[in-house]
Amino acid sequence: MEMNAPYTSFAAIGDSFTEGMSDRLPDGSYRGWADVLAGRLAARVPGFRYANLAVRGKLIGQIVEEQVPAAAALRPDVVTLVGGLNDTLRPKCDMGRVRGLLTEAVERLAPACGQLVLMRSPGRNGPVLDRFRPRMEELFAHIDELADRHGALVVDLYGAPALAEQHLWDFDRLHLTPEGHRRVAEAVWQTLGLDAEDDWRSPLPPPARPGWAASRTADLRFARQHLVPWIGRRLTGRSSGDGRSGAHFSAEEGRAFWVTPADPARPGPVSEWVRAED
Q: By the number of CB atoms within 10 A of the CB, which of 50, 216, 251, 262 ranks highest?
C-alpha cells in the first residue's frame, strides 16, 4: 500500500500494550494508542472501520492462535502486531519458539492486509529492563528481519530514549501513561507516512525527585498492588487475560467485528463507536 494512502480500516492485535493499559477513561475502560490512532485515521476518511483484538497478558502463542486468524479474516488496510514481550519476561523463555511463532504470525498476516506494522516495544528504564534487555533485543532483531522479508513497517519505540523515562510509565511500572500512549499513536501515524503533528521523541521536562520516604512508600505500594499479584499469577499459571476477549471480538460468534463512528463527521472516542454492518 502506498504511503500516505487513505487507510479505511485498521485492526490491532497483541497484549496489554495494545489493549490500552494504563490509559484509563473515567468509566474505567482503557483507551490506549491504538484507539487514539483509530480516531485520527477516522477523521481522514468516511466509513472508517476499526477492530482492537488485543488482550492483556497474552503470550505470542495465544496471539497466534486466538487473534491472528480473526484479524486476517477481516482483510484490513492496516494491521499492527505487537507481541512476544510477555514471553521474554517469563523466567523460562524459549526464544527459538518465540521467533518461530512470530514468524508464523507475520507470514499469515502480511498477505491478508494492505500494510503490516510491527514494533520494537519501549521499555522503562530500571533493573527489569536491564535484566531482560538481551532477550528483548533478540526479539527486536528478528522483527527487523521479518519486516525486511515481508514488506512490513517497523515502529522503533525502543530506540526512543524519551519513552524509556520513568515518568512516561504508569504506577504499575509495566504500562505507559496516557501521554506515553499518545506518543506511540503519533509514532505509528508517522510511520504510516502521514504528516507529523509533533515530535513524539522529544523529552519531557524532568519531574521533581521524590524524597526517600516517598520513594519507599511508592515501592511498597507497587509491591503490594502489582508485583505480588503478578508473581502469584506466574506461580499458579494464571494470566490477567484469562477469560477475556478483545474489545471487538465476539466469543459467541467466534469472530472479530468492525466498529465505526456513529457520526462520520465527528468520530469522537472509540468507546462511543457502533458496530459496523457486515
A: 50
